[in-house]
Design brief:
alpha+beta; 10 helices; 5-stranded antiparallel sheet; two-stranded antiparallel sheet
């Protein structure tokens, strides 16, 4: 009656399996201990989260993989010496007391393992979606951006709500992009400061308009911005601004900063930062197309046909001179940079 127990124990008593058991036991204890400490104290640390939700679960899985690898190696060696006594595959006989107990232990251990890994996965997902992960874990890289966000009107909005948004497609894209960013941090190959505009950024209409939907804003709004001079008296001054938000967008009489939502606006940028914009096209609802050309650096028809055209989803303002194929004498349109709110519009 002791032979089955001896055989099962013999499979596990090897260097590889013992290392796996130790790693799995230590990782499980650390995960439980740190999760309990986090729940009791309420203290969240980005580096602690990195260990609890990624390093320790990985250590647990790696340890549990080593256990059967070591056991099968021992079994293969034993079978090579006595192939007639040991069958090719393990036999599960629940009528045998020791095998039944081992099977029950295996089921309970598997349940505990799945439970721990599931909790770690859910908490790990929440951790990667937190501003702590985005702004503090990569503190050397994102310090300026995190500081600006902390002092902005969007300080209660998570980074991922604007930079990733809802849906599995952009979540996967963000995580793949995140792997490249991790490599850039580890190899110290990231640009300083972070360059803009950011390539392959999700359109603002998929993210920003969940809160700032155009129908919410109408008429004009008055905003007062307070500033203080860097002198001994910190002399105050204020900017009293009347914002021409306009009427209801997507209507024939739309005006103000949301007029472009009812139209299809595309543009061509000739530089990486998209500050040199020699061509803009506006397609109205009735199909009428108005093209604006730079008087200083006009593009040829061939250049316009070959150039990459981008959709314009940001508010635009008048700042320069344009000539138009339909309405000449109109003013140049440029991106509105809302520096006071630390918000960068997407294009």
């Amino acid at each position: 009656m002791t032979k089955p127990r001896t055989q099962i124990s013999r499979y596990l008593y090897n260097t590889i399996s013992l290392i796996g058991i130790i790693l799995a036991a230590v990782a499980t204890g650390l995960i439980i201990a740190f999760l309990a400490m986090e729940m009791i104290t309420g203290v969240e640390n980005p580096y602690l989260g990195l260990l609890v939700y990624f390093a320790f679960p990985g250590m647990l899985i790696f340890g549990l993989i080593l256990v059967p690898i070591g056991a099968f190696r021992v079994r293969a060696q034993m079978r090579s010496g006595a192939p007639s006594e040991i069958p090719p595959f393990p036999r599960i006989d629940l009528n045998d007391t020791h095998k039944r107990r081992f099977f029950i232990f295996f089921v309970i251990a598997t349940f505990i393992f799945v439970l721990i890994v599931s909790i770690a996965s859910i908490k790990g997902f929440e951790f990667t979606e937190s501003t702590t992960f985005c702004g503090e874990l990569c503190h050397t890289v994102m310090t300026p951006e995190h500081t600006a966000w902390s002092n902005s009107p969007h300080a209660k909005v998570k980074c991922v709500e604007c930079h990733v948004g809802p849906g599995a497609e952009w979540y996967v894209k963000a995580k793949i992009s995140g792997l490249r960013q991790v490599y850039a941090v580890l190899s110290h190959s990231f640009p300083t400061p972070i360059e803009t505009p950011i390539e392959n950024l999700r359109p603002a209409r998929d993210t920003c308009e969940h809160c700032h939907w155009p129908e919410k804003f109408y008429s004009g709004r008055q905003k007062v911005f307070y500033h203080y001079a860097p002198n001994e008296d910190n002399t105050p001054r204020e900017i009293n601004l009347l914002i021409n938000i306009g009427g209801t967008p997507k209507t024939p009489h739309a005006k103000g900063i949301h007029w472009h939502i009812g139209s299809e606006v595309t543009y061509i940028a000739t530089d990486k930062k998209r500050l040199e914009i020699p061509y803009i096209s506006v397609k109205e609802k009735d199909g009428k197309v108005t093209e604006y050309m730079s008087t200083e650096k006009p593009l040829t028809k061939e250049q316009i046909a070959k150039a990459k055209k981008r959709s314009w989803t940001a508010p635009i303002v008048i700042t320069g001179q344009l000539t138009s194929t339909v309405r000449p004498g109109r003013r140049w349109m440029r991106i509105l940079s809302a520096a006071t709110s630390m918000h960068r519009f997407h294009m």
